[in-house]
Amino acid sequence: MPLRTRTTYLVSHLRTLRTIRFRFCLLCCSIFFLSLVWIELVTRQNSVNEILIQEALENVGRDLRYSNVYRKTKHLPKNLKYLLLWTRRDFAPFSFLEEGQRTFLKNNCSVINCYVTADKRLFGTDYTKFDAIAFNGRTMKSYKLPRKRSPHQKYIYFNMESAENFPVCNTKFDGFFNWTATYKLDSDLPTPYVLIRDKNRAIVGPKRRMQWKDNMENVYVDYRQTIENKTKMAAWFVSHCRTKSGRHIFVDKLQKALSTYGHNVDVFGNCGKLRCPRGKKSTSELCNLLLQKEYFFYLALENSFAEDYVTEKLLTAMSYSVIPVVFGGADYSRFIPPESYIDGRQMNSYQLAALMDRLARSPRQYSRYFSVKRDANIVFEVELDKLVMNTERATVLYHRKGKEPIEVTDDSQLHINADWINLRWLEDFQLTITEAVISLGPGYLTAFFKTKICDMTISK
Predict the structure, then answer these.
(1) C-alpha–C-alpha distance, residues 109 and 88, integer Å
(2) pTM of the model
(3) DSSP states of 55-84 as a string?
(4) Would you give the distance in Å from CA 139 to the centre of its chain?
């Protein structure tokens, strides 16, 4: 073989070997890398599986209904307190609770040894084994109550609805409950819609005697641009038109009074012609941004009059740069500073319209209502998980080790609304009963007689 041919062959062979060697190295590296990835995935999955298995075992261990499956009763908590929801979960606050301890664990509660259930047969048919039984006043029936009762149990009355709409006037409930948990601030477990927290997240209100900081700073510079861009007088977001408070009558009278100044109330929702804008954000958020941008006042009108009955409507105004005009049966100074709102029941419609017109024309005076927003120590918020908060606060069940008897509450006016019984609100509109029936609809007459019967019942 000629020398040149032999040389060419050798060079070609070397190149082939190099190519093979490179591909082999590349294959080895790929295999090594994929092995690392596989090991990481397996390790991570095993870790996740272990966590899931442990969590499942813990959940099963906390739930007595699965004790036969779990077969390790020694792992079941010994200090659980059992709360039975006697009425169904359809309505707040019971609708916030999941079975067992789940809700307390999810909310990082300081006390988690409360086991909530709607299963009346958790202990067979013996209701006396529950530490407490909760009743929702909205669905509670006097003919569907536990037949036997232990002197060591607590019966707790819950109601987030107005006493005007769901009064308790059956004498069968005299001395029946141990605790009350309602929006009323004098409840054993107050459950207001609005909470006031300090900068450390501690709850400081609402309460019957709130000590508000005198904070009338000049905040005009901060809000000048926002105020000067507003062009409309008032907005009302509403879904239920005819309510016992007669708020639609209030709006009709205010509309008439404002028209003398060239203003009006824009009504959004089922009871008006306007609708909130639509977009990527939620409809309610877009509504609120529109409110802040264009309107001077927001009508926070409750559907019924009852002491301390203040819903989240109030916080819509407190969360945005707009002055709330409130209308309800509460003393609003228990919930927000007196200088931050206008009480629509403290003046007639023409006086209210004159005040609103004057404030809208004077940005400096208008901005004084926003002084409270500068107080960094106070935060207003809606607390939705009422039952969680109050069940956690019910530490008497947690600390009670013995089986001592528990006192009951002797209150024949457990959830009665004096404003509705006295019908004081009719004076606000200067209406007769006949005029009220015409304005509020036939349902008002039925409610009126129901209230009178209830009044006579508790007066006996």
Answers:
(1) 24
(2) 0.72
(3) HHHHHHHH-GGGHHHH--GGGS-SS-EEEE
(4) 19
Model confidence at 163: pLDDT above 70: yes
SS3 sequence of 333-370: HHCCCHHHCEECCCCCHHHHHHHHHHHHHCHHHHHHHH
Q: Cα–chain-centroid distance for residue 163?
A: 18
- For 317, the enclosing helix (H) or strand (E) is helix 313-318
- With H, G, I as helix, E, B as strand and everything else as coil, classify residue 299: strand
Task: Pull the structure tokens for residue 395.
Answer: 């530490």
Q: What are phi and psi of 324, to 5 degrees?
A: -80, 135
Asked if residue 44 has pLDDT above 70, the reply is: no
Mean pLDDT of the chain: 76
179 strand-pairing partners:
156
167 Cβ neighbours under 8 A, 6+ residues apart: 415, 416, 417, 420, 451, 454
Counting Cα atoms < 13 Å in the Cβ hemisphere of 348 gives 6
- List the end-to-end C-alpha distance of the chain, in Å, as a whole number: 131
R_g of the chain, CA atoms, integer Å: 32
Q: What's the rounded Cα separation, in Å, for the pair 388 and 394?
A: 10
Q: What pLDDT score was predicted for residue 231?
A: 96
